[in-house]
Amino acid sequence: MENGYVKTSMENGIATVTFFHPQSNSLPGDILRTLAKEIENAGNNPDAKVIILKSDGEKAFCAGASFDELISIKNIEEGLRFFSGFAQVINAMRKAPKFVIARVQGKAVGGGVGLASAADYTFANENAAIKLSELAVGIGPFVVGPAVERKMGTSAFCQLTIDASEWHSAAFAKEKGLYAQIFANNEAMDAAIKSLAEKLATSSPEAMSMLKKIMWEGTETWDTLLIERAKMSGTLVLSDFTKKFIASFKKK
C-alpha cells in the first residue's frame, strides 16, 4: 500500500494490529480492507487470545475517510465499495471471538470514532478528542453510527452528529462510555494496556468468547445493515456539496 500500511505482531498470546497513513492516519480503501482482514485473521488464530488495535505515530489516532479517495469516487458502485470498507472493519471487530482493545493516542474523526466504538475496551490519552464531521462534509456517519450509538447512547451520538464541526474532549468521550480509561500520557496508557492484555491472555478463551457473543447480542443484522448504510454514504459522496467541500478543504 502506497504511503501506508497495516501490520500484525504476536507476542505471548497478544495480537497487535497496527495501521498507519501519513495523512493523520486517514483510511483509504486498501487500508480498510487489509485492516478488516488482519483483524479477522487474528480472531481466527488460535494462538491469539486478545487483540490490540492501534495506529502508529504520536498525533492523530485516525482522521477517518481519506479525502483523496473520497474526491476520486465517480459512481455509486465505487462509493459503496469504499464505505463498505468501514463496514468490514467494524464487523470484523464485532465478530472476532476475542476481546479487542483499542489504543487511542490522539484525535479521532469520523471513521476513527467508529473504530474506537467497535472495540470492546478502549484506552485513550487526554488529547484524544473526538468529532463526527461527516455532516459538515455533506454525508453522515451512517456506517459507524450503529457502533457509536451502541457504545455512547443515542443522545451523545446525536450531539456528535449534529454538532459536526466541533471537537468533543476525551473527558466527554469517557463520560459517555466511549473510553474506559484516559491517561495523561502515552507511557501510562501503554502500561495499563499491557497489564490488561496480559491478564486477558491468560484468561479462559472459551469464557471470553461466550462473553463477547453476549456483549454484542442484538447486532446480528449488522452484516447487511452496515452495507445498506455504506450505500447511503456512497450516494451522498457524489453530491456537488461534498465535492465542493472537499476541494475547498484541500486548498487550505
Describe the structure.
This protein has 252 residues and is α/β, with parallel strands linked by helices. The protein has a single domain, classed as 2-enoyl-CoA Hydratase, Chain A, domain 1, CATH 3.90.226.10. It has twelve helices and eight strands. A six-stranded mixed β-sheet has the order 1-2-3-4-6-8, with helices on both faces. Strands 5-7 form a two-stranded parallel ribbon. Helix 3 packs antiparallel against helix 11, helix 4 crosses helix 6 and helix 6 crosses helix 7. The longest helix is centred in the middle third of the chain and has 20 residues. It is globular, with a radius of gyration of 17 Å. The chain starts with a strand and ends with a helix.
Descriptors for this entry?
252 residues; 2-enoyl-CoA Hydratase, Chain A, domain 1; 6-stranded mixed β-sheet; two-stranded parallel sheet
CATH T-level topology: 2-enoyl-CoA Hydratase, Chain A, domain 1
- Could you say how many structural domains there are in total? 1
Q: What spatial order of strands do you see in the largest sheet?
A: 1-2-3-4-6-8
What is the number of helical segments per DSSP (H or I, 4+ residues)? 12
Report the order of strands and helices.
Answer: EEHEHHEEHEEHHHHEHHHH
**What is the arithmetic mean of pLDDT?**
96
Q: Look at the helices and sheets and give the structural class.
A: alpha/beta
Using DSSP, what is the number of strands?
8
Name the poorly predicted regions: none
C-alpha end-to-end distance: 26 Å
- Major β-sheet annotation: 6 strands, mixed
- CATH architecture label name: Alpha-Beta Complex
Amount of beta strand: 5-15%
Task: Find the CATH superfamily.
Answer: 2-enoyl-CoA Hydratase, Chain A, domain 1
